[in-house]
TrEMBL record:
<dbReference type="Pfam" id="PF14552">
    <property type="entry name" value="Tautomerase_2"/>
</dbReference>
<protein>
    <submittedName>
        <fullName>Tautomerase family protein</fullName>
    </submittedName>
</protein>
<dbReference type="InterPro" id="IPR014347">
    <property type="entry name" value="Tautomerase/MIF_sf"/>
</dbReference>
<dbReference type="InterPro" id="IPR037479">
    <property type="entry name" value="Tauto_MSAD"/>
</dbReference>
């Protein structure tokens, strides 16, 4: 699951395109299936979204929640692909993008009435 935060005036107009970019990267780098898009957008009022100096109103935070098991090189490749694609396709500079990967053991996930370690996934985690 991916959660995206940004100032609503900047985030709302690009949500669909950003979702496509993120999912394209997840498919290309992690081998995620087409039907495994799980994105949540959190458009925020400017007064509720504090961010570091040197950033613009386009500052966007992307939190990637996933089952642990991917190699360090794979996770780094995913982050770098997202930086490249977001800049190329949306014009958001890497300085205005923060990407965090949060991993949890499979048994900490619950979906389709079971835990992640009980599910038969149609994609690999150990990539």
């Amino acid at each position: 699951m991916i959660v995206v935060y940004g100032i609503k005036e900047r985030l709302n107009p690009i949500k669909a395109q950003l979702s496509d970019i993120l999912h394209d990267c997840m498919k290309a780098v992690l081998g995620m299936p087409e039907d495994k898009r799980a994105h949540r957008f959190m458009p925020m009022d400017r007064e509720d979204f504090y961010y570091p100096g040197g950033r613009s109103g386009a500052y966007t935070v992307i939190e990637i929640n996933m089952i642990e098991g991917r190699k360090i090189e794979t996770k780094k490749a995913l982050i770098k692909a997202m930086f490249r694609q977001v800049e190329a396709r949306l014009g958001i500079a890497p300085v205005d993008l923060e990407i965090t990967i949060k991993e949890q053991p499979a048994h900490c996930w619950g979906f389709r009435g079971m835990t992640g370690d009980e599910a038969a996934l149609n994609y690999k985690v150990d990539v």
